[in-house]
Amino acid sequence: MKRAFAFLALSAACGLSFAQMSPVGLWRSIDDETGQPKAEIRIVESNGALLGRIERSLRKEGTQRPTCEACTDDRKGRPMIGLDIVRGGTQAEGKDVWEGGKILDPENGKEYRARFSPIDGGKKLEVRGYLGPFWRTQTWERVQ
Question: Could you tell me how far CA 85 lies from the centroid of its own chain?
Answer without folding.
Answer: 9
